[in-house]
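Sequence in, structure out. Go.
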Amino acid sequence: MIGTQPVGTISGVVISAVSHEGLSVTVDGKPARLAILTDDGRVIAVGDQVAKEAEAVALNSYRNFLKGQGYLRVNSAPITAN
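Output:
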């Protein structure tokens, strides 16, 4: 887990993160959006709200690691439909 993690495993997809911009996604160079799907394909949430939630969970997990609490699971609150 320490060190640079491998990236580039999804053909044509680039997920970017900038500290002051959050997460963004492109597919073959064109803007795309993150989504939450169930196993049967039902779309639960899509767009900036999903990216912000994913970023918040990742950051909180990393902060726990830095505090020596990396064993703690970080969960988001349920995303409410708009």
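Check: Strands lie at 13-18, 22-27, 30-32, 35-37, 43-46. The first helix runs from residue 48 to 66.
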